[in-house]
Every structure is written in C-alpha cells, then in structure tokens.
Specification:
The protein is α+β, with helices and mostly antiparallel strands. The chain is built from 5 helices and 7 strands; from the N terminus they run βαααβββαβαββ. The chain is globular and about 35 Å long.
C-alpha cells in the first residue's frame, strides 16, 4: 500500500529510518534519525507544499518519497523529489513506482519541471531509475561534501513535462 504520510505515522516512519544502514542515514538531506524532526513533519503537514508518500509492507514502512514545491518565486513551477527505500525492496521497481506517482502528482499540480539532486557515485542506482523516465543528468564535480568533509560529484537530474 502507498499513501500520504499522516500524523499517526511518526512511529512507523521513525522505525523505518532507524532501520536503514547507518551509511545511508549519514548522507540523508535531513537528520532522519531524529524523532523530533519526524514529529515536526507530522505537526506541519501541508500537502500543497510537500507531498510525502509512504510505502508499506503490512504495518511496516518500506519506502519514503516526497515531492517538494515552492509557493512563490521563479521556481514555483519546479518540484523537487527525493526518496529512500528499505534495502530489501531495492531493485524491485518500487523506486520507479514512487517516482511515477510523484510525477503524476506534479503534472496534476501544473508543475513544469522536476529535479532531483543525487550523490553521483553513491546513488547511481537512483540515477538509473530516473534516466529511463526522461530525466536528464547534469554532473557537477565536487559539489557535495560528506559528513567527513570529503567532496563528491553531484548529479542534478531534471525532467521537463511536455
């Protein structure tokens, strides 16, 4: 089952994040091991600004994906997507399914573009999901910095709706 994140999902989402390999968590965009962060998300749900989707296997969250958008400014018609999958559910098509759902939502919202920023060498599997869906990759050498201070090439992937 896939559905939007709700305020009563805090425990399940926190357990999902804590179950991810530590190496993945340290490269996340947010401090996802912080229960307080997830509680703040639950207290401030605004589906027009951020559409968070959860995929479940029974009661257990196995994936988190989100579409972020701005209300004003020059990027108001551009959405940003990101997602994380349980290691046991990778290479099963779940990532592509979630991205396709977010693309459908973005189209329905009237967005013109979607972007996704990925660590080129560590997230090649995600790049491989996006490119067949029509995303174009732009490599930015040395753009990202890991928690230890080492630089990484980043890939910005961009999709334009026809």
């Amino acid at each position: 089952m896939i559905r939007p994140f709700r305020s009563d999902d805090v425990d399940a989402l926190h357990a999902f994040f804590l179950g991810l390999p530590a190496e993945w968590r340290r490269f996340a965009w947010d401090r996802i091991e912080s229960r307080g962060l997830i509680e703040r998300w639950a207290d401030n749900i605004d589906y027009d600004k951020t559409l968070p989707l959860l995929a479940f296997d029974g009661p257990r969250v196995v994936a988190d994906a989100s579409l972020h958008r701005r209300e004003f400014g020059p990027l108001r018609l551009t959405g940003r997507i990101k997602w994380l999958l349980d290691p046991d559910f990778r290479a099963a098509g779940l990532g592509a399914m979630l991205v396709n759902l977010l693309m459908d939502e973005a189209r329905d919202m009237g967005l013109r573009h979607l972007t996704c920023m990925l660590i080129s060498d560590l997230e090649q599997d995600a790049i491989d999901v996006l490119k067949p869906l029509g995303f174009h990759e732009y490599l930015i050498p040395g753009y990202g910095v890991d928690p230890d201070g080492a630089t990484h090439d980043m890939s910005k992937l961009v999709f334009s709706f026809p």
